[in-house]
Specification:
mainly alpha, globular
């Protein structure tokens, strides 16, 4: 399938204001946060609903599976259906799923709600290309970066928010409050989002089939997705295992202490608009190089942060910030490059890009848990180092050939 124009679409308005950019960013952050509330609440939920120890991990896993399926099966609909209605429908479904989670009385009910939360949360990956479509070429990277900063803030703040609310009230209240936020968000977006109608000639089946062609033939998509898979694998490994390290005998932090540590990671979100501006100026290659070096440096620094001292805690915090800066910068640079491939395929390209690096994140989480149980933080940090190192080594091969060079940015 050629990437030449196969569709027409209408978007109103043709530009995006700072206020509208903020609305997109806030919406992405609030919706993306739904994916992460279950992580710090897995223990209380398991005890309350009677999960077996072996099944407790499904609390997070089912949400991730739902999100992964949504990336491949729902996000491509952004190239087929009116985007405003699709976004509102998905957020409304997420509100229902969150209420279902709050009211669950059995493990099966909660897991079904978790799966639906993951599926509906892909609304954020309809919103991001929606915002990119509204931005002119000259500022598209900046707009995507600003929107992604909101999304990443939501991800990083979700865990401490859930911990604080659950400790003050109960885990049920976390889901009730977030369901109310989703309902309010539907009302606000309905009043403010413009209409975007892609007039595609493809059926849903052919739409999905076209994704295989994009995945097989777009070198830019392949490379940027693999780079981010390595970076996001490191991110997931770090944030899966650092709570175990901080709660261990060396640091002995409480749940609230770990939540405060997680807040430091949110500082990485400020890298998004910076990365977007660099990409708009044609500096994608330099920004990507810096991002991967930051990722590797974070794990090297963390090797000196294991004795439980204040210095160790500060070093670990610095590592978290550097890693989040690197992951965010590479993500935005990748999105800027992928969105430039074809305006008519942006939702499908975004779904493939996200699904690929999300797989890297799932691998990072799984490997991180095994590594920490097997060899403690030293082994975990060295394996974590390998993820951005893999991305960087692959990135270095980009200069071998004119086509690869052109794809860098």
């Amino acid at each position: 399938m050629s990437l030449s124009t196969t569709t027409r679409e209408t978007v109103a308005p043709q530009t995006i204001s700072p206020l509208m950019t903020f609305l997109f960013a806030a919406a992405c952050g609030l919706v993306a946060a739904n994916l992460y509330y279950g992580q710090p609440l897995a223990g209380p939920i398991s005890a309350s609903l009677g999960f077996t120890p072996a099944a407790t991990g499904l609390i997070v896993t089912l949400t991730q599976i739902g999100y992964g399926l949504g990336l491949l099966l729902i996000v491509p609909l952004g190239d087929l259906l009116e985007n405003r209605r699709l976004v509102l429908t998905l957020i409304a479904i997420s509100a229902v799923a969150l209420v279902g989670a709050a009211l669950s009385s059995t493990p099966m009910m909660f897991l079904l709600a978790s799966l639906c939360i993951g599926l509906a949360s892909v609304a954020v990956q309809v919103l991001v290309p929606f915002a990119a479509q509204m931005a002119p070429d000259a500022t598209r990277g900046r707009v995507v970066g600003n929107v992604m900063s909101g999304l990443l803030c939501g991800i990083m703040l979700a865990r401490p928010f859930a911990s604080f609310v659950a400790e003050a009230t109960s885990w049920h209240m976390v889901y009730f409050v977030t369901a109310a936020l989703m309902i309010a968000l539907v009302v606000i977006l309905r009043a403010n989002l413009p209409v975007r109608v892609p007039h595609t000639r493809l059926s849903y089946g052919r739409l999905l089939a076209s994704m295989a062609d994009l995945a097989l033939h777009s070198r830019i998509l392949q490379r940027r997705a693999l780079y981010q898979a390595g970076m996001f694998g490191a991110f997931s490994l770090f944030w899966t295992t650092t709570p175990l390290l901080l709660a261990g005998p060396e640091f002995g932090l409480t749940q609230n202490g770990i939540a405060l540590f997680a807040l430091a990671g949110a500082a990485g979100a400020i890298a998004s608009p910076i990365a977007g501006r660099l990409a708009d100026r044609g500096l994608t290659k330099a920004a990507s190089t810096l991002a991967m070096l930051l990722g590797m440096s974070a794990f090297l620094i963390s090797q000196f942060a294991t004795d439980g001292s204040l210095t160790a805690l500060l070093l670990l915090t610095a590592a978290a910030i550097l890693l989040d800066f690197g992951v965010t910068t590479n993500l935005v640079c990748g999105q800027r490059a992928v969105y430039a491939i074809s305006a008519e395929h942006r939702s499908r390209l975004n779904g493939l890009y996200m699904a690929t690096f999300f797989t890297g994140g799932a691998i990072g989480s799984a490997v991180g848990g095994w590594a920490y149980a097997t060899g403690g933080w030293t082994m975990t940090a060295w394996i974590g180092f390998c993820f951005p190192a893999f991305a960087f080594l692959l990135f270095l091969t980009e200069g071998r050939g004119r086509q690869a060079v052109s794809e860098a940015g």
